[in-house]
Amino acid sequence: MSVLDNFESWKDFLGDRLHQAEGQGMNQKAVSEIATEIGGYLATEVEAKNDQEAVLRELWNVADTEEQHAIANMMVKLVQNEGTQS
């Protein structure tokens, strides 16, 4: 089962990666930039596996660059307390 198949698994996965990055000293600006790059990649290259991902993809695709950064930052906030290491 892929982490993309279930939104809770996806949030746990993202939370774990966020905690890892922070533990290695990555600052908030770098996290934000990487989150934006990942969001762009997912929106263009990965098929949505659940309703939540489909909504995020649609929002991403209608957003301008500033709004995409905001979506990425909100996803970072959403997963800050997620993950198996939280």
TrEMBL record:
Gene3D superfamilies: Protein of unknown function DUF3243. It comes from the Bacteria. Pfam families: DUF3243. This is DUF3243 domain-containing protein. It comes from Halobacillus seohaensis.
